[in-house]
Amino acid sequence: MANETVDVELASAERTRPSDDSKRNDDDDAMGGVTDSSEYVEMWIDLFLGRKGHEYFCDVDPEYITDRFNLINLQKTVSKFTQVVQYIVDELDEFVLEGMSHARLEQLESDARKFYGLIHARYIITVKGLSKMLTKYKSADFGRCPRVYCNCQPLLPVGLHDVPGIDCVKLYCPSCEDLYIPKSSRHSTIDGAYFGTSFPGMFLQAFPEMVPDHPVKRYVPRIFGFELHKQAQLARWQELQRLKLVAKLGEENLNALNRGGYKK
Questions:
Q1: Which residue, 160, 168, 166, is CA-closest to 185?
Q2: What distance in Å separates the CA atoms of residue 112 and residue 225, rounded to the nearest whole number?
């Protein structure tokens, strides 16, 4: 009788005991719950680059931003310089952020954008920065020249001043060597100092194979096939000067389709 009772209890225990498969399923469900509840926190630099209108910017390495040597003379451009740097590279303590007022957080964000722009102007003339901008240039991320005879030549961003707050970014065409205003208002409001005055020259010096031939074809206004008198007279004078220059270059064994002094 006692043996029968023991057998019944063992059988009951076997029925109620979870199998190894059910244990694994329970563990997987638990792990899945943890994975689903976890949130991915995006870096500040990624958020900045992801905003509309920031397509001209490249990502600056955090190591470059935290190197004090690269930040010389930038300390006075923003308030609480160290805090701004930590905020950009996501090293600012969360408790410090939580203790800030809304106004202070807005000021910190504004200072971070300005500081990133200024350090960006320095970074894009380094070897790594130039390489990243080359990728964007090949993809025509900065737009193409609107001049017909430039044949959709990709443009380069440039600032007319290195001091922020003076002028907005312009676009330089290596083909016609002229400047243009960005088409989109999102881009035309970007400070030119965030790209600096030296970038196009450094870029074309580093990658001379990217320098296109300068176009020699010019448009002359006509009415019913006849050139306009004043415009035609000016065009003939300009063409005469061009031919003289071409002849002079020929005497020096130089090609008229030069690349602005950049050598391959």
A1: 168
A2: 58
DSSP state of 168: B
Length of the chain: 264
Name the one residue in this structure whose structure tokens are 């930038």: 74
Cβ 63 vs Cβ 129: under 8 Å: no
In angstroms, the CA 197 to CA 169 distance is 10
Tens-place pLDDT, residues 119-173: 999 999 999 999 999 999 999 999 999 999 999 999 999 999 999 999 999 999 9
Supply the angle between the helices 127-138 and 199-206 in degrees, to the nearest 10.
Answer: 90
**What is the rounded CA–CA span in Å between residue 28 and residue 22?**
10
Q: Tokens 């400070």 correspond to what residue? A: 191
Question: Nearest to residue 169, comparing CAs of 188, 197, 145?
Answer: 188
CA nearest to 104, candidates 117, 127, 87, 118: 87
- pLDDT tens sequence across 236-251: 778 888 888 888 877 7
pTM: predicted TM-score of the whole model, two decimal places: 0.72
CB 178 within 8 A of CB 215: no
